[in-house]
Amino acid sequence: MLRIKLNELIKSWDNGLVQTEVWRWDGIGWNECIPQQEEDFIRADEELFVTIPAVAGLYRVDYSRKPLEPLFVLPEVEESALRAELLHPAPFKLKEGTLWGYINNEGKTAIEPRYDYAEEFQANGLAIVQRKDKSGLIDSTGRERVKPLYSFIAPFSEGRAVVSDAKGYTLIDEKGKEVTSARADYLNSLQEGRALFSKQSTAGNSRYGYWDAQGKEVLPAVYEDAGDFMDGVALVKIKDGEYALIDPQGAVLHTYNYPFVGYPGDGLLAFQAEENGKYGYLRTDGTIAIQPQFTAALPFSGGRAVVNTASDYGNAYGLIDKQGKQIIPATYYEVLQLGEDRVALGTPLIASQPYRGSRYAIADAVTGRILSSHPLLGVNNYQNGLASVYDAQNTYFIDKSGKKAAQPPVIPGSGTLSFSGSLIRADVDQRISYYDRRGKQVWRHNGVIPLRPPYSVLEKKYKPNRDYLVYYPVVEGIAITDVSREVNDKLRSLSLAEGAGTGAQDFSYTGDFAVSFFRKVLLVLELSGYRFPFGAAHGMPTRIYTHINLKNGRFYRLGDLFKPGSKYVQKLSDIVGKQIANDPRYDYVFPDTYKGITADQPFYVDEEALYLYFAPYEIAPYAAGFPTFRIPYAEIMGLISTEGEFWQSFH
């Protein structure tokens, strides 16, 4: 990787705002943009530079003054419409870990961070929050309307919210009270006075029916499949080869005798005339509107539908109108309806590796005309004439013309922008920030985690390309310079924030960190990562806990906690083995796979217990994550070296 400093080239410029672009010649033109490392951090001291990968080729560096963003203010919204949105969820990195609270429109903390996760306030003035894997509801004063008791709470719809607990799913009202004691195996949100539910039949199959707003079973679970009500009707499957359109009282309006019938949209339903045959569209009265001719057919929306004509599970998507006429030819890898008469047309970034992602152009859904061919790597739906997008460099809004909108902000990195009351929320490169409508940042995810003077942890970012992103820790306050450098060099290396991602790679990688525990001079950091090989079914997570003595910079291992010569490996192995055998929480462990722990078993500590953990697949299924076993100190005090440096570092 080659670095080119720009400091000398721009030192005479009045303002320090610079925009840079690095382009690579691909044999046809300067078409490949090389993303640049972002160094926008508190107390970050890197010089201004661009990087060129260590791959032979022709590269061009463009640099210029960065113009001030033009002001663009959306029409004012009445205060009453924003009342439930004046507070905005925000994550804070603290020595206790990442906790969520709420900020006001000025970026000031309005509700102290104390939740594991927090969602936007809804129109009824309530917000869903989570603590210790349980969900509850709070109002704008921070008062708990529903204590975090449920395993899940859905957003309110028609005055009701779906909740679930160990007994199943039910509905609550806006006071947090369950409207019925009944439970369903699954329950959708209320739509047009009906909530789709399912329960298992005596044969073990799921059957579907509908509740009303009071939790009464108005339509029993007799359908093999069913959808939500929309425009006064719902599609249900009576049995194989028989579908029906019903009204809210269950009266059958129309019956369709075909192997497959899809959910209605704009008065048309996709269908197959033959088993595993091609798709066409029916009118609601059962007559054929468009003859079967497609290998895939999505529901109509806005008078148009996305269809696929490729065989053998290929991708050749286009857009048709209600007469079946092609608006956009079926030649694209993806076609996404964005609303407001706009679509995104996607083609693979690498033709031989379509799973690497697509580049999108914006087109008019009415005429099919391409409005903007600037390659976008991510697109979202239009709302009030604006859509959030990102390209190889920035995240920003586009307008109905498909061009960059005047509405700021423009943020380096990949993500989305969304309106949150009078603010704009930016979720970019896995970090959240808020801006006012003029593009001024009013709040950002904090880059420094205070511990106690003189110690703190600084967040740094490593992003050599769009598929490699790591946030890594820098510990500040260690008195001895050489020790401080050694500690932080090791943390950067363990975080995989150096050397990687600068050449050709066949995977994506994201890494992050959190303070797991801090007491006296012991700092425990959790370094997490996720490596996803392109084209794989799933990626592989990693987790490392570092136990650092901030006085001398030493990294402790498991054995450092115990007396020399103690048989801690055997004792801990026995304790974990008993937990697996006797605790039903560990029923997921593969039989006969646990053979004991190792001398350097992955672990972490807190003030009350030692925790031992295993990697995915090591002793349990991938879905089990990192099987973790808690061992209170009281159970192993005879083995612990209470006069040893490790124990004394946090006692």
UniProtKB/TrEMBL annotation:
Domain DUF3298, first and last residues per copy: 560-633
Pfam families hit by this protein: DUF3298, WG_beta_rep
InterPro entries associated with the record: DUF3298, PdaC/RsiV-like_sf, WG_beta_rep
PANTHER family: DUF3298 DOMAIN-CONTAINING PROTEIN, GLR2918 PROTEIN
Name this polypeptide is given: DUF3298 domain-containing protein
